[in-house]
Design brief:
This protein is mostly helical. It folds into 3 domains: 78 residues, no CATH class; 163 residues, no CATH class; 92 residues, no CATH class. Helix content is 56%, strand content 6%. The chain has 17 helices and 4 strands. The protein has a 4-stranded antiparallel sheet, covered by helices on one side. Helix 4 runs antiparallel to helix 5 and helix 10 packs antiparallel against helix 11. It is elongated, with a radius of gyration of 29 Å.
Length: 435
Amino acid sequence: MNFQDEMKKVFLQVAAGVIEPAEWEQWWNRNKDKLEAVLTRGDQMRIMPAMWSTGYYWMKKTQSGVAYYFHTQGRPVKVSDYYEKKVQEEEIRNRRRALEDFDRSTASVRQRWEQYLAGHPLETVDFDWKRLLGTPPAQKPPQTFPYKHTRDSEQVKEALGELKLRLKENMQAKIGPLAKAYGMKKAGPQTFVRERNGLAACIKFIGYFRGGGYEAMHCYLCPVYALDTGILGLPGQISNGECFRRMDKGWDVIEYGLEAVDAAKVEGINRKFDDILTFLAEGVLPEWQKIDSLETYFAKERQDYLKATEKGPTDPCTHRPMWDLRQEGKHPWRADDYLFGVWALLSGKEEEGYGYLEKCVEHGADYMKECLKKRPKAYNDKREIMAVLYYNAGLFLGTKQIAEPGQRREAVRETYKEVCRFMEYYHGLAKRVER
C-alpha cells in the first residue's frame, strides 16, 4: 500500500469517527513530511490547523477538513457525529467544572448569607412541581393542517388561534399552579404578582410585536415603593446560569403563529414551557422565598453575595465570563439612589437618605421639566417609568423641609403609604389609582 492509499484510509477513519485524537495526532506527526508533500497548504491547514491540540473540539475541525478534502476530490463522504457528541460532553463537563470552581470561590460570602437566613426562619414551599412537566393533562390533541407555512390571512388567523390555545394550555397547567403555590395571583392572562411585607414580585410573559406569542419573560422582586430596575436582583448563577441558558434558547417555537401548529410544534411548545417551569421552580421562586422582608432584601450579607456573583466564571469555549451583571457606575436614571434613599429614611438614617434622594431628583430635574410640559400628569402613567421614579423621589425629598423631627418622620411614613398606594397599581397588584 502506497502512502496516499494509507492516508485516505486514515482519513476515512476520521470521517467515520473511529480514530481518537491522540492516535490521530501520533499518526500525523509520524507522517508529517509525507503529508506536506501530497497535500496542498490549504488542505493541511484545514485538516490540522496551527492551533490544533489533543481534544475532540479540534478533532471535529480535522473531520471537517477531511470531508472538504474528499469533496474536492469528487468523492463526498458521510461523516459521523461521534466527535460532535464528544465535544458537547466535553463542554458540559468543562462548564460544570468551571461552575464548581465558581461555587468554591464565592463560598465565604454565600455562607455569611446562609448564616443570616438561618437566624431568620423562613416559610418553605412544599410543592411537587415536577409533576407538571410534560404534556398538560387537559391538552387537546394536535391538529393536522394541509399547509406548513401560512399563505393567506385565513391561514394566519387559524395558526395564530392554535398557537394561543397551546400557550394558554401550558400557562394554565404549568406556570399558573407553580405561581399559586408561591402565593402569586394573576394580574392578566400572562402576568403573576405577589405582595409580601412591602415587597412586590412579578413574573410577566411579554409579546413585543405581532407574532401572537411570547418573546421574553420579565421577572423581578423589589420593594413596592421601587421600580423593577434589576438592582439587588437574583444571584448571577440563577439569573444567568444553566437553567437560564436552557430556558433562554428556542423561544421561536412560542413566538410566532406564522406556521401550522402541528404535532411536532405542540410538543416543542410543551418542552419550552418545561424549560421555563424548571427555571422558575429551581431558581427564581425559591430564591425569592428567602426574602420575606425589606430588612432581608437590604441585608448587607445579601448585597455582598449578589456583588460576588455578578461576574460568572470563564466559559471554557468562548473564554469570556458566562455572565457579567456588573453595572458601569450607577444606574443611568439614579434609580439606585432612590431605592437606597427611601430605605435609609425608613430606617431612620435621614442624612444618608436625603443625600441619596437629592442626587436622584437633581439628575432627573431636566427630564421632569420637559416631560411635564408635554404630559402634566405623566407621573400617574406606569408606562412613563422615569416620570414615576423622579416624582416619587421628589415626594420623599419634600419631607426634608419639615423642621420638627417627629412631624418629619410622620410625613415620611405618610409619603411612603401614598407612594406604595400608587406603586401597587404600577406593579399590577391593584387597580388604577390617581394621585
